[in-house]
Amino acid sequence: MLYREAGEFKTSYAQDSQTFPIWWDRLWYQVALVVGFAILPFVINDYWANAVVVPFLIYAIAAIGLNILTGFCGQVSLGTGGFMAVGAYAVYKLMTAFPEVSVVIHVILAGGITAAVGVLFGLPSLRIKGFYLAVATLAAQFFLVWLFNKVPWFYNYSASGQITAPERTVLGIAVTGANTPAWAKYLICAVFLFVLAWIARNLTRGTIGRKWMAIRDMDIAAEIIGVNPLTTKLSAFAVSSFFIGIAGALFFAVYLGAAEVGEAFGIQKSFLILFMIIIGGLGSIFGSFAGAAFLVLLPVFLKNVLVGALGWPSDLAAHIELMIVGGLIIAFLIVEPHGLAQLWRVLKEKLRLWPFPH
Amino acid sequence: MRKSFTLLAAAAIAAGTAGAAQADLVVPNLSYRTGPFAAGGIPYADGFQDYFTLLNERDGGIGGEKVQTPECETAYNTEKGVECYEATKGMGALVYNPLSTGITYQLIPKMQADGITLYTPGYGRTSAANGKVFEWVFNYPANYWDGASVAVKYLLDQNGGSLDGKKIALLYHNSAYGKEPIRTLEELSKKHGFTLSTLPIDSPGQEQKSQWLQVRREKPDFVIFYGWGVMNSVAIQEAANIRFPMENFIGIWWSGSENDVQAAGAGAHGYKSLTMHGVGADYPVYADLKQYVHDAGKAAGDGSNAGTVLYSRGMYAAMVIAEAIRKAQELAGTSAVNAAQVRDGFEALEITEARMAELGLPDFGQPFAASCEDHGGPGMARLQQWDATAQKWTLISDWISPDDEVLAPLVAEDSAAYAAEAGLTQRCN
User: In terms of Cα–Cα distance, which of B260, B342, B128 is closest to A160?
Assistant: First the structure.
């Protein structure tokens, strides 16, 4: 009954090829936009922005980035944390070197620099695949973290190796630094996420996305039908790293405000984002959102329930939280190995037939 | 899925904050009882919590106001630290003591903007000792650079006043914490003519074979150690394995608790570390803690840490915070002080030996007095040595003052850099 295409007539190619061909999907999308851009900025407070929503938005950008590489193009990467670090340090160097330029431009440039680094570390993918490539990207992760620790130029020779984001404004309103209002923090991340998700969605359903998927599904067959593996794989690395670089830049400049490479962008970050896309669903933009939401919101939610509402000791709650999150990940993957996105797809199928299944 | 989570989380937070809103004096306890640093975090958090429980039970709080210490688990992780800060600051938090240098760096600008005091005894950003720049941050009685300088001074003392031609290795946690002393030690190596080599250990530091191999190869005369959590016991075990002479191995005060040395058994005998307070449970305050807190079943955690080094340190931090709040009450003329008044209390705080004795801690910590310029205290430290047969720490030196001639310009330089970066004007003029 819900989600039915019956009665929806497409009378032009444009209508037929739109992003959300089903009316219900379009409705959700529009509701999400209205809530996200017209309501949330007015009601969000410091806690919600800093602890829940901003990390979710930034992780969603990173997850989309990794999903392009791993989910759409089939190249496994464990270098996400390192690439986020490139974005963070790039934006830091740019912010401190050119204070008069808008931070939005810096963030985009940081994405560009990360894209270049990503392409460089993507070169081995032309010869190696699968686990071997994962190991090569793991090397990128360790090398980049080591580099940012070792070379003082990257952290402007500060005594502790910490980088701290100075205050920068967009249209006269602080978006980085300590005086940023919660709504500005939220809005800058939301705008970046919206634009990037829109780009990702349209890239993945166009020529270039089809090439990525052809390489993912069978690279030899793809090559035979005329897909150039060099440009395809490297473009996937470039676009993916661009997204991840922007996520890293926002993560440092807007969310944390100060960062230290080993702690903020270590190997555990690479795994976290990989888990997001596996749980959310490989090769799905919606899955990136769902996975990021699952891994960011669930621990905060559990903590608030166990410590805040039930009054458990914080250490017991922290341990139980790990067990619950771990258990849920396993449970979800057993129920639906293709992730939350597939779960949603199945649910949509069911909703179409409801209440009269065959 | 996302929507329902959000709704449930909203309900949970609403329930959570409603419970703690009517607090009198709120001192959030950002602790870590999980993860690789829990070995240090648990006793510290217990001591911190228990001291405030003692004040509530014995004296009815501070100046008649009960103290609440809502606990939030950070796991020594900066992201969780931010979450904890945001979750607790709305409760009317007066002062934070996150026991993590990474979280401290994160919080310094935020708390300056929010107007809440950050108290980081013995850790955090060293140059916060300069009150002209860091209005809301206090790190007395001692900081990392003081520690490095005291260690070198002690070694000078042991070597007849000269370290010329000696080799000192700094073995450190590869983070803001461990990197802090490098600049100081570089300056000191120029001044005293020793060669310095730095050996970073990546967090959490369970694997240190390569660093200790390097120690074996370079054969430094002394190793200065800035470690924390699980890496402490691993390092001491590794040092014992390569038969490095333990009396030449000096840890900072964060690398000198019972948990760090016990794992290595007899091999740890003779290991030295700095400390900024007395050791053991032979202080009168412990009798009160036993009577009002432990025996009354109100102890934090499992109650087994009383008297350990880090428990005492957590208690010491709580004691200074309580004294600062008392001072603030005195200055403001009201017992229900707010965050800004507490900051003034911190800045006007003076801890004398007589006051320490009154509080049941005679000959425990150094006396100090803060001022508008000085948020760092005298920075003295003592040395303690582990006795593996008696299973206890013994103090082996008197208070040693750091080399302010070297440290003061470094503090001025680093804080000026921060002021320029953050666009702050200097106060106290």
Answer: B128
User: From CA B136, how far away is CA B115, in angstroms rounded?
Assistant: 7
Closest by CA to A327, choosing from A299, A292, A286, A289, is A299
Q: Which CATH architecture has domain B23-143+281-379+409-422?
A: 3-Layer(aba) Sandwich (3.40)
Q: Between B101, B105, B203, which is nearest A262 by CB?
A: B203
Instruction: Please give the CATH architecture assigned to the domain spanning B144-279+381-404.
Output: 3-Layer(aba) Sandwich (3.40)
Q: How far is CA A162 from CA A89, B298, B334, in A?
A: 11, 39, 40
The answer to whether B97 and B69 have CB atoms below 8 angstroms apart is: no
Confidence of residue B352 (pLDDT cuts 50, 70, 90): very high
Q: Are A166 and A174 in contact (CB under 8 A)?
A: no
For the packed helices A314-335 and A285-303, what is the interaxial angle rounded to 10 degrees? 150
Cβ under 8 Å to B: A residues 131-150:
149
Q: Answer yes or no: is pLDDT of B28 > 90.
A: yes
Separation of alpha carbons B227 and B260, rounded Å: 10
A155 contact residues in B (CB cutoff 8 A): none
8 A C-beta contact, residue A60 and residue A292: yes
Rounded Cα gap, residues B91 and B71, in angstroms: 12
Query: Which pTM was predicted?
Result: 0.90
pLDDT digits (tens, 9 = 90+) for B61-75: 898 899 999 999 998
> What are the extents of the domains in chain B?
23-143+281-379+409-422, 144-279+381-404
Q: Do domains B23-143+281-379+409-422 and B144-279+381-404 have the same CATH topology?
A: yes
pLDDT confidence of B232, banded at 50, 70, 90?
very high
**Nearest CA of chain B to the CA of A289: how many Å?**
9
> What distance lies between CA B246 and its chain's CA centroid?
24
Q: Determine which of A263, A320, A347, A348 to mutate to test the interface with B (most B C-beta atoms within 10 Å).
A: A263
Contact residues, chain A, for B83 at CB < 8 Å: 50-51, 300
Please, which residues have CB within 8 angstroms of residue B116's CB and are 6 or more apart in sequence?
B89, B93, B94, B95, B96, B136, B339
Q: How far apart are CA A174 and CA A167, in angstroms?
A: 6
Residues A88-107 have pLDDT tens digits of 999 999 998 998 899 999 99
Identify the pLDDT of residue A156: 85
pLDDT digits (tens, 9 = 90+) for B375-408: 998 999 999 999 999 998 999 999 999 998 999 9
Report the candidate in B162, B161, B160, B178 with the shortest Cα–Cα distance to residue B170. B178
Residue of B nearest to A262 (CA): B175
Residues 74-113 of A with CB under 8 A from B: 96
For the four alpha carbons of B67, B70, B74 and B80, in that order, the dihedral sign comes to negative
Mean pLDDT, residues A119-139 taken together: 90
End-to-end CA gap in chain B: 57
Q: Is A41 exposed, middle or buried (0-12, 13-18, 19+ CB in 10 A)?
A: middle
- CA distance to A67, A170, A274, B331, B404, per residue, from B102 (Å): 30, 28, 25, 33, 25
Look at residue A230 and give its three-state secondary structure: helix
Summarize pLDDT for A161-217 with one digit per residue, the tens.
888 888 888 888 888 888 888 899 999 999 999 999 999 999 999 999 999 999 999
How far, in whole angstroms, is CA A218 from its chain's centroid? 25
| pLDDT(B6) > 60 | no
CB count within 10 Å of CB A232 equals 22
ipTM value: 0.86
Q: CB neighbours of B47 closer than 8 A, spacing ≥ 6?
A: B305, B306, B310, B311, B312, B313, B314, B315, B316, B317, B318
